[in-house]
Amino acid sequence: MMYFGACYYPEHWTPKQAKDHIPLMKQAGINVVRMGEFAWSRFEPEQGRYRFEWMDAVIQALHKEGISTVLCTPTCIPPQWAVQKHPGMLQRDADGLVRNPGSRCHCCKNAPEYQMLADRIVDQMARHYADMPEVIGWQTDNEFGCHNTTRCYCDHCQSAFRDWLLEKYKDTDSINQAWGTAFWGFEFQQWNEIPLPRRMPAGNNPSHWLDFARFSSDTQVKFQQAQYELLKQLCPKHFVTHNFMGGFPEIDYWKLAQFTDFPSWDNYPESGEDPFLPAYHHEITRSFTGRFWVMEQKSGPTGDANTGLMGEQPEPGDIRRWTWQAVANGADGVCYFRWRACLSGAEQYWHGILDHDGVARRRYREVAETGAELAKLGAALAGTAVQTPVAILRNYAMLWSAERQPGAPGFHYDAHCYEIYRAVKRTGHGCDFVDIGSDLGRYAVVFAPCACLADKALADRLDAFAQAGGTVVLTPQSGARTPTNTMWAYPRPGAFVAIAGLTVEEVRPYHHGQAEAIEPAGGQSPVPAATVGKWVEVLACREAQPVAQYAGGALKGACAATRNIRGKGAVYYLGVYLPPTALEGFAAAVLPPFPVGALPPDVEVTRRTGKQGSFLFVINHGKQPQTVTLPKAFPELLTGGTLGPEVRLEGNKLLIFKV
Ligand code: GAL
Prior knowledge:
By secondary structure, this protein is an alpha/beta fold. Strand 23 (634-635) and strand 24 (642-643) form a beta hairpin.
């Protein structure tokens, strides 16, 4: 079954205002609601006095109409009494300024008073709802780290950071060694000399920074772990999820996802934006456990809580397309944010399925139409999943290292992962994401973009994958740093010299728009001719063979990209950032062929496969009609006909084939 729902805030409505809500939900095919994530002040109006009966009544009324509940732990916003009583639990920013209460996410997860209060409310809720059959699962808190709050610089964090370091390094000598503290006299004799990387006159030590980024992420993970373990112990029948933020860069979601049954995420696409971006976030979220939901799916104009600006209306067909795009990329549940626009508060302009007046209009009708389609196809899709031979290594420590020191002007680790992802998607293949310890056995090709932090263990793992027949693709700046974010004392690509079969003779960051032409080299090359800039590397082959070289200028004839045969497979090293078209050409050349003909620019294809067969989704994200060539004609499930091999697809529409 597909879960199809809405985020609902019963505490925002009087009974009179709410009287049509549940009948309208039912008519729209909604079968689940998410509630409670900001309602701690209603659940515990005074310390230790718990009030759940108001929520129980809503849960039961929904259930009478066949609508289940995902409840949230409300720990994102403690009641005002709690903050008054314990002002020490407020976060501090890098300048030491307090993050004031009155909105959300302002409490420090290392503050003992906050941990204690959070523990108690979760415990009380879990005990109260454990056996209520209407409740199917939990979402913990809300979007950990939202509003730039992953990293806190308060005194609780100062001492927790030292404890974290003590556990990792055991003594100050090891830390001095690992961080290279001889530079700028940053050496420690005592643990209490180690500061937080608060704002400093000049740049902080990158190793200090990386460990602080790791520690801050671990703080969020630990908070989740505590709630997850409590909920699983007290409510064994319920699932536990958390609403991630797709590619959000500050929390190691690989670790966070371990303390969920599956992650979910919040998807707010813009009507005209690059349609592959939401797909990127869907596939990232799916990759953590193989399953996911979209817990908040945009269903109306957004409304920025800070600027007060109202966002654009979704165009007709957008909500349906976004919903199906989530399902096509593997989602098993989609909940719209929010049921009805709120009359008060910072998000007054953030619309939902219904406007402020609660009248069911165009967006509601589109949701209902989508709900009917999902209800029709849900059973067939249940148990199917996206399977792909391609993976991208996306590691958070590498991301944090590259965020602190991007090296190349304008370089962003995540944008680079996205460029590669987009090139893969244009071939038709879906794409999994993997971490450094993930099992690579099921893939044919693994891209390791800017794998900047590397050691022998990672090199060996990638090598074993290549030796067994896989293809590894490394890109510029890979391998140069140790896992503690110092530089290796030998040639780039550092830890990857042996598996790439080359050394980097020179790196050339280009700050003034300089460009180089490259051309294929060495016979059959997957690298097309292209113009490259930003940062180029001059490669010296050892065992590797050139597959691209510089075509002119001072670098003419020097090697720009290589292939190194390893056992039954190969390691490619790209010493340049290929522009999108060249990257697409490269991806098409190294990936297994995909059975659908060349895809028009805004068309996405995905496949979900299971025991009951395989389903091919073809989505036209653009406004113009497009034609796609399938290998043959197939039954189409939305129209009930048989279509193909040539299929014409209207703008903003999709088709689903049983193949
Ligand atoms: C999400 C958040 C929701 C709501 C929504 C609209 O990021 O989880 O609580 O704020 O954005 O702003």
